[in-house]
User: Which sequence fits this backbone?
């Protein structure tokens, strides 16, 4: 639904809808901004570092209290939620740059590096996954026939024939492939910017830039190869990502609840990822614009264009949820009723309603207004709400799955109670998020957070021109 | 004395825009002239007046009415034939959700369409001065002016480069 | 991305009104042939109503056969309209311009056709009305709003109404052009339809707003329609493989896949029969081809998810149906054809630019998709029903007979006929949209290279 304002001053777009920065000044200015570390930045860096330390403390306390298998996988539910949350968002984030580069959208230019920088968190995802290898219960029912545990020889899993190393090894390799691919994308995309800075940089920074971009001279051949490589790696990343998301959500959520057969969960998880990642990128862009001094490089157009997609994803999220709910509600098998009561209405009821409020109702009522979508704060505000909702979604799904009783049973035969976090769980959740933020903040000081070459390239294709008696934006799209 | 229409035809959009400027400086009120075109020129291309409208209210009104009627339809037909299904209450929301949703959307769309027609001031039964060349790409500048002003207006239009100036016979 | 030469408004009027202002010689004979097929089907329907559905191949346990398959197929085709015009309008894609109205009109006609299928399938169509709508107060007969079989008509009614109005609103300016180019009775009719349109800024502003606003409002309806069709199947636990939570998005993406392919095919045909080479250009077909790669791959993802989580539960009866679908002849053969024609052949073709710019290859790829998508619906519906219960006399396979064949064939004739008749009285390519595109196009010079560009208001 869009509302249109009634006067030219409003309906003709804000003056800073499209910004056309001066190329030379930009290189110099952004290089300076990357090098300098303001005191507020330092403060945030320290804060996230402290959180990360708390996370490590929480992790070891949890480890000493419960170990990796003594009390089953249940106590690690919050750890898994936090891992999945960070993986889902940071894994999906580089796609924002990949996808809109493929569609040749000009508005993406100033935010694409924000997206690609999340590649540095990919390494963290691989490391965070390692404990989960030890936590996941075996696919073969260890006590089958002893009359102790469940009725299934092999629990329900997407690994039908249980190939070698399933599922741990393959999940690990998938995460590793994502980390490597996204780093490669980041490196390829940032090479021209680093090459530009290598002459002006000094000391360690100069050495690093020379090392990473020494080969780059910006020849036509190099640009063409860079373009082609980015497209191929992007497509590869996209497909791997969807697959790994499917693995994680099936292995660590669905297959841990006996009898939960829900084919829409992987797409729902993927939609959650896109929605949250886009939101986080818009929040960062807003912060850069408002407090980081990037106002002349980031116009309103990325917000205006991306918020439509953000709104669409928000609606899609609810649509997927409803498709799940109505199928189970109508099916009314015992396991389906128990699942709905467990995940949606009774045990995790309050969390579900809060999840729905933050991931759908609040962002929907913010984003449905055209004037708000034409601002920088509106999409960012909706984004904050979406990120909160997304965290609640992960808690509901993963903590719920980790504590749903006997996984070798045929179906969920009772409704287990919800599990609330203890102090170490809280430490782990905020610690993991803090650690991811810390890494990102460090990376933003190493590699420019604005894709200088893309913004420069964009300036070639965009200009303001007169048509009859009005002045409009001209956008060119090279084929 | 009543205002009567006078129509200048231009084959160049810039000239039509100039005519608009000319009329403004000749003291013709912005409300009294309009640009007739065969395609949507970008807003402000002729330096024309701003159009105020309330189109955005219509979908909301329609949605509320549609939702209400859909809820009435579903609750009342279930109450009229109370059949307990699957141990659920007679009135339970999930089975009504789909029809309520469709009702809401239908209401919103119907009202939006009505709104578009109304806000376009259609149907326009007493069609004034017009020229079929407008749908061939000419731009018409339709001026409402006192009859005494007509010669002055015609001069402005001609000066801007009108290929034809028509008055109501 | 613009090719082709600049066009003047007069030229645009002349070319795009050609289908209306002069009738080609082949027109009425073709319409006649199509009408004959439709008439034959109408007679068959009459016989079927008289003798009962027994004359078709429908029998226990397969009570939903070709009619319902065809219903889902045409609903799928109808999804192209909004997919193309709404999404591309909202995304401000320049290349949408010639495609939008043909897509919307295809939506309307395929919806009408789709709607007729379950009504024919009821056997006693005149009774259908009080299943859908509460009107028989005296006898206390009320529709059961809890069943997806009632949700369905509500969704289709909403979609049909809104897409019809969407097309009509967008036609008003073109009615005005026709009004200015005709005389006599036709002039009076078009004058009535144009409602006194004169093309002032206010009217254009509303026209532009209506495109955006109605697109945004119809999009959610479009998603709901095919979701609800999928819930006709998905809400039931009895027929195995149907009760899957992914059905809604899976059906929607499949519908977009088949619908957009159908639009591409229709556009190519229109380009050929009315000589619209300057309007429906290779770049448009190319862009649609690239869009289709994405849609097809998305569809394939949902297809794989649906199959994986079908087997995931390891329930014996579900596995049995999957076995029937994938390993037991002849259904396994149809499954193979379906997967290859829906995904592998067309996507392999679309991946090369040369193929995307070859109209013959594009036509074949789009037909291939639609053959596959028709089979997909058949393979979802029929094997799911072919369960063997306790009584051996219900152990029947489904073999379609002549009445189904002729009625299915006639649906294609019916839609083609309606499209031709429509193009005889209304322009199938929006004139003003093309004209707008013409004066918004410009160029940007970078060094020695000239890059096509467009003016944008935002």
Assistant:
């Amino acid at each position: 639904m869009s509302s249109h304002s009634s006067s030219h001053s409003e309906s003709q777009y804000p003056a800073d809808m499209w910004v056309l920065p001066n190329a030379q000044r930009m290189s110099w200015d952004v290089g300076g901004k990357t090098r300098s570390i303001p005191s507020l930045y330092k403060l945030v860096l320290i804060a996230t570092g402290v959180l990360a330390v708390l996370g490590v403390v929480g992790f070891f306390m949890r480890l000493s209290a419960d170990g990796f298998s003594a009390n089953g996988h249940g106590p690690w539910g919050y750890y898994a939620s936090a891992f999945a949350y960070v993986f889902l968002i940071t894994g999906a984030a580089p796609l924002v740059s990949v996808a809109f580069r493929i569609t040749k959208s000009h508005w993406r230019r100033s935010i694409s590096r924000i997206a690609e920088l999340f590649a540095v968190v990919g390494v963290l995802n691989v490391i965070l996954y390692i404990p989960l290898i030890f936590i996941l219960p075996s696919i073969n029912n260890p006590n089958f026939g002893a009359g102790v545990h469940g009725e299934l020889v092999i629990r329900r899993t997407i690994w039908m024939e249980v190939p070698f190393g399933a599922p741990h090894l393959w999940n690990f390799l998938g995460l590793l492939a994502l980390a490597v691919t996204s780093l490669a994308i980041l490196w390829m995309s940032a090479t021209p910017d680093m090459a530009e800075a290598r002459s002006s940089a000094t000391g360690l920074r100069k050495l690093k830039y020379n090392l990473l971009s020494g080969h780059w001279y910006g020849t036509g051949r190099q640009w063409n190869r860079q373009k082609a490589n980015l497209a191929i790696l992007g497509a590869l990343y996209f497909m791997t990502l969807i697959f790994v998301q499917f693995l994680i959500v099936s292995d660590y959520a669905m297959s841990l609840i006996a009898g939960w057969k829900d084919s829409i969960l992987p797409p729902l998880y993927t939609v959650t990822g896109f929605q949250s990642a886009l939101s986080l990128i818009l929040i960062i862009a807003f912060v850069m614009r408002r407090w980081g001094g990037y106002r002349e490089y980031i116009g309103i157009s990325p917000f205006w264009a991306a918020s439509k997609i953000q709104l669409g994803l928000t609606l899609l999220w609810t649509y997927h949820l409803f498709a799940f709910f109505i199928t189970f509600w109508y099916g009314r098998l015992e396991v389906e009723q128990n699942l709905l009561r467990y995940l949606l209405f009774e045990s995790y009821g309050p969390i579900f309603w809060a999840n729905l409020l933050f991931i759908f109702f609040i962002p929907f009522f913010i984003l449905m207004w055209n004037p708000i979508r034409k601002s920088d704060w509106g999409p960012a505000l909706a984004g904050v709400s979406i990120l909160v909702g997304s965290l609640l979604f992960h808690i509901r799904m993963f903590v719920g799955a980790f504590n749903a009783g006997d996984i070798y049973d045929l179906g969920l035969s009772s409704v287990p109670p919800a599990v609330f976090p203890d102090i170490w769980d809280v430490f782990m959740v905020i610690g993991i998020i803090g650690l991811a933020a810390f890494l990102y903040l460090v990376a933003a000081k190493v590699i420019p957070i604005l894709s200088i070459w893309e913004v420069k390239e964009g300036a070639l294709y965009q200009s303001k021109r007169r048509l009859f008696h009005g002045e409009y934006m001209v956008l060119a799209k090279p084929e | 004395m009543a205002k009567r229409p006078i129509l200048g035809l231009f084959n160049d959009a810039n000239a039509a825009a100039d005519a608009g400027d000319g009329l403004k400086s000749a003291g013709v009120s912005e409300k009294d002239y309009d640009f007739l075109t065969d395609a949507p020129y970008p807003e402000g291309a002729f330096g024309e007046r701003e159009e105020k409208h309330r189109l955005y209210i219509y979908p909301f009104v329609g949605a509320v009415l549609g939702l209400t009627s859909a809820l009435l339809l579903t609750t009342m037909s279930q109450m009229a034939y109370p059949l307990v299904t699957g141990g659920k209450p007679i009135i339970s929301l999930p089975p009504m959700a789909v029809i309520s949703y469709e009702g809401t959307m239908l209401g919103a769309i119907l009202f939006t369409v009505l709104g578009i027609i109304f806000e376009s001031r259609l149907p326009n039964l007493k069609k004034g001065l017009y020229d079929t060349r407008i749908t061939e790409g000419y731009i018409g500048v339709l001026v409402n002016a006192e009859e005494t002003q007509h010669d002055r207006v015609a001069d402005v239009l001609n000066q801007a480069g009108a290929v034809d100036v028509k008055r109501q016979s | 991305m613009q090719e082709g030469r600049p066009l003047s408004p007069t030229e645009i009027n002349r070319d795009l009104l050609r289908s209306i202002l002069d009738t080609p010689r082949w027109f009425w004979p073709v319409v006649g042939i199509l009408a004959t097929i439709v008439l034959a089907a109408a007679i068959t329907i009459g016989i079927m109503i008289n003798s009962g559905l027994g004359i078709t191949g429908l029998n226990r346990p397969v009570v939903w056969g070709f009619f319902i398959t065809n219903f889902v197929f045409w609903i799928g085709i109808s999804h192209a309209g909004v997919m193309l015009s709404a999404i591309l309008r909202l995304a401000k894609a320049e290349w949408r311009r010639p495609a939008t109205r043909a897509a919307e009109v295809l939506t309307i006609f395929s919806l009408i056709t789709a709607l007729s299928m379950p009504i024919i399938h009821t056997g006693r169509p005149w009774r259908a009305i009080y299943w859908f709508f509460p009107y028989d107060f005296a006898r206390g007969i009320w529709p059961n709003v809890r069943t997806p079989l009632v949700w369905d008509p509500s969704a289709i009614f909403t979609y049909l109404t809104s897409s019809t109005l969407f097309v009509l609103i967008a036609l008003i300016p073109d009615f005005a052009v026709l009004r200015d180019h005709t005389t006599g009775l036709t002039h009076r009719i078009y004058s009535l339809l144009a409602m006194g349109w004169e093309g002032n800024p206010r009217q254009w502003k509303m026209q532009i707003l209506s495109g955006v606003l109605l697109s945004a409002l119809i999009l959610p309806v479009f998603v709901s329609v095919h979701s609800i069709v999928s819930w006709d199947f998905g809400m039931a636990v009895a027929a195995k493989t149907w009760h899957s939570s992914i059905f809604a998005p899976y059906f929607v993406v499949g519908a977009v896949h088949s619908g957009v392919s159908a639009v591409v095919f229709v556009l190519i045909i229109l380009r050929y029969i009315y000589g619209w080479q300057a309007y429906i250009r290779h770049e448009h077909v190319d862009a649609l081809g690239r869009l289709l790669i994405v849609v097809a791959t998305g569809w394939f993802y949902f297809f794989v998810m649906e199959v994986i989580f079908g087997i995931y539960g390891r329930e014996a009866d579900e596995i049995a149906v999957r076995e029937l679908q994938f390993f037991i002849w002849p259904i396994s053969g149809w499954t193979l054809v379906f997967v290859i024609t829906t995904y592998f052949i067309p996507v392999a073709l679309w991946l090369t630019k040369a193929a995307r710019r070859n109209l013959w290859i594009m036509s074949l790829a789009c037909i291939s998709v639609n053959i596959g998508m028709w089979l997909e619906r058949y393979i979802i519906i029929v094997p799911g029903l072919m369960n063997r219960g306790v009584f051996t006399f219900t152990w029947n396979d489904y073999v379609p007979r002549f009445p189904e064949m002729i009625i299915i064939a006639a649906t294609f004739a019916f839609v083609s006929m309606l499209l031709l008749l429509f193009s005889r009285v209304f322009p199938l390519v929006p004139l003003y949209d093309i004209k707008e595109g013409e004066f918004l196009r410009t160029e940007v010079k970078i060094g020695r290279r000239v890059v096509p560009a467009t003016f944008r208001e935002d």
The longest strand of chain B covers residues 3-10. Chain B touches chain C through 62 residues (CB under 8 Å). The mean pLDDT of chain B is 89.
